[in-house]
Every structure is written in structure tokens, then in C-alpha cells.
């Protein structure tokens, strides 16, 4: 019995969360924390091949393990917001406008493990999830605004098909195929209007070839592949025979990485999302280190309990009861 109690005591001690962080303290609003956040954001956006690019809204937590011969290990928790730039857009994320709250912005939460060596950060592990903002927040900002609709809603799918057909009919270059639906909202007292955003992919067919044999048209892959993004509204007024279709598409040049070869991570097949309102970061394959995501999340909580780290606003030997402000979480960049 004594042996059993001793064994249990050793196990509990091994997994006990330290009362104090074992590494140095980093301010969530410091340049160092910002550099770590930007490296993590670049990694996430580079490996997230659905939906939209994200921006950093807030650095929520930072913890640093003591330095070793391999540098320091950072555990960082980030609050992200969806931008208006589709993942295929070449626009740098710092130039992407943030999705406003009235459009039911999507929020991301990521726990990232990074290594800092020689002043440079490298991502070692990522664990992310995302969700649309609450209906309450949307209606507080805009009482008449619509919420997100399921991406496979029949009215949404019809609106995307009608908008893409309209675009292809007026396009004299190549025939484009649907790659994925990004987001959708259905508006009006009788659901008369669907607003949709979607990604298109260039096919191997010209407009004439598509008219003659549409089934033979497939999306281009490899070095010849290129994409575009579209925003459209499709309105069917009561009693009207035809729909009103307004579609605007931007076609991008083929995207290449630093080696000059188009990104091999771009999915060749359309993304089909059943019953979901957005492309959740949880379901995204965040590169070769995503397999470490669970350890990244567990280690963040192990080494940095959810207790705000505070500092004095007074002099060096300030009264312990003096006003203090937390080092973390950092300030919000948007909302």
C-alpha cells in the first residue's frame, strides 16, 4: 500500500503545473511578441488553403522556456480575425481589410509553438480552430443584417452556379470552374436575395470548347493553374420571371513560391463543405507541423496557466498594493 501511494505521489508530481513560469516574462504587446505572432500568422495563412486569410487581432498569451543550446521555445496563443482577402489572393495580408462585424466576421484561435534561434522564429507546432461571431454581436452592430448561411444551402449553391454561368458567358478567355464557396448570406423578408463569395479555377477549355463539350473541361493543375475570386448577388423578386444577377470576379496570375514553382499545397479538386457556415481552421491541414498541434496546445497550458502576469505602474520599489496592469493579454487591434 505504501509503495502504491509513493508511486501515485511521483506521478502527480511529474504532471503538476508549475505555480510560476519557469522562463522569462514577455509582454504580449512587445516587439518580440509581435514578431512571433507575425511568423505564426504567415505560417497559418501559407498552409490554410480554404476560405480567407487571417489577421492578428490580439496576442493573448506568451510564455518562454529557458534558453538552451537550441535557442528558446515560445508558446503563443493568438486571437485572429478573418480578412476579406480569399486565400488565393496575392494581396499581402497587411493590406487585406478585416471582415466587419456586421458581416458576421469569423474569429480564429490558435496555439503556436515556436523556436527562436539567432533572432529568428520557426514554427514547430500549431493548433487552430475558428467560428463565426455570435448572432448577438452581429445584431448589436447591425439589427437588419443577415447571418451566414450554410455553404451547401440549395439557394446558395444555385446563386453560385448562376453567377458563375453569367461570368463565363461574358468572359472571352478561358472557361472557369467552381473551386469552392467561401461564404454566403440570404437576405430579404422572403429570402429573395443571396449574396455569395466563391473561388474559381481556370480550366483547360476555351469558351467555345466549353460550349461544345463542357464535360471534358477540367481545372488546370501544376504550373499552368490559376485562380480567381468572385462576389455576387442573385435576386429573385416576387412575380418576376428572371433573376437579377450581379457578379464581379478578379482573376489572379499563377502564384509561385520562392523557388518559382506554383504552390503544391493548392488543392486540385473543389472543396465541398456540407452543413458548415465557414471553412474551419480546425479542418485545415496546417503543413508538416500540424501533427504536433496537440502537443502545442497541451504544452501551452502546462507552462503558462491562465493567470494574468502583472507589472507595477509605479517606481521600482512600488507599494505592492499599487495599481498594476497585466502584461497579457495584449491590446486588441480591431474588435
From TrEMBL:
GO terms for molecular function: cysteine-type endopeptidase inhibitor activity; endopeptidase inhibitor activity. It comes from the Eukaryota. One of its GO terms (biological process) is acute-phase response. It holds the Pfam family Cystatin. Residues 1-16 form the signal peptide. Residues 18-129, 140-250 form the Cystatin fetuin-A-type domain. Keywords: Disulfide bond, Glycoprotein, Repeat, Secreted, Signal. It is found in: Secreted. GO terms for cellular component: blood microparticle; extracellular matrix; extracellular region. Gene3D superfamilies: 3.10.450.10. Its main location: secreted. PANTHER family: ALPHA-2-HS-GLYCOPROTEIN, FETUIN. This is MGC116434 protein. The lineage of its organism: Eukaryota, Metazoa, Chordata, Craniata, Vertebrata.
Amino acid at each position: 500500500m505504501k509503495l502504491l501511494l509513493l508511486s501515485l505521489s511521483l506521478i502527480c508530481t511529474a504532471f503538476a503545473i508549475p505555480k510560476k513560469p519557469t522562463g522569462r516574462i514577455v509582454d504580449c504587446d512587445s516587439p518580440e511578441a509581435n514578431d512571433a505572432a507575425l511568423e505564426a500568422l504567415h505560417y497559418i495563412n501559407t498552409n490554410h488553403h480554404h476560405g480567407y486569410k487571417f489577421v492578428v487581432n490580439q496576442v493573448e498569451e506568451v510564455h518562454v522556456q529557458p534558453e538552451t543550446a537550441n535557442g528558446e521555445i515560445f508558446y503563443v496563443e493568438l486571437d485572429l480575425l478573418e480578412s476579406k482577402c480569399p486565400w488565393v489572393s496575392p494581396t499581402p495580408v497587411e493590406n487585406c481589410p478585416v471582415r466587419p462585424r456586421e458581416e458576421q466576421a469569423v474569429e480564429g484561435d490558435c496555439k503556436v509553438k515556436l523556436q527562436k534561434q539567432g533572432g529568428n522564429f520557426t514554427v514547430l507546432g500549431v493548433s487552430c480552430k475558428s467560428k463565426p461571431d455570435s448572432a448577438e454581436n452581429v445584431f448589436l452592430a447591425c439589427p437588419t443584417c443577415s447571418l451566414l448561411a450554410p455553404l451547401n444551402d440549395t439557394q446558395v449553391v444555385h446563386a453560385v452556379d448562376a453567377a458563375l454561368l453569367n461570368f463565363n458567358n461574358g468572359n472571352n478567355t478561358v472557361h472557369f470552374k467552381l473551386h469552392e464557396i467561401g461564404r454566403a448570406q440570404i437576405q430579404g423578408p422572403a429570402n429573395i436575395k443571396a449574396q455569395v463569395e466563391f473561388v474559381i479555377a481556370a480550366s483547360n477549355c476555351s469558351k467555345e470548347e466549353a460550349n461544345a463539350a463542357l464535360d471534358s473541361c477540367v481545372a488546370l493543375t501544376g504550373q499552368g493553374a490559376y485562380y480567381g475570386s468572385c462576389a455576387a448577388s442573385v435576386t429573385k423578386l416576387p412575380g418576376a420571371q428572371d433573376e437579377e444577377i450581379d457578379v464581379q470576379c478578379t482573376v489572379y496570375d499563377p502564384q509561385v513560391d520562392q523557388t518559382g514553382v506554383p504552390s503544391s499545397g493548392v488543392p486540385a479538386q473543389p472543396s465541398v463543405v456540407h452543413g458548415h457556415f465557414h471553412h474551419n481552421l480546425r479542418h485545415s491541414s496546417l503543413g508538416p507541423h500540424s501533427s504536433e498541434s496537440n502537443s502545442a496546445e497541451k504544452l501551452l497550458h502546462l507552462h503558462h496557466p491562465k493567470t494574468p502576469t502583472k507589472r507595477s505602474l509605479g517606481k521600482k520599489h512600488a507599494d505592492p498594493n499599487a495599481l498594476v496592469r497585466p502584461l497579457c493579454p495584449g491590446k486588441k487591434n480591431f474588435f
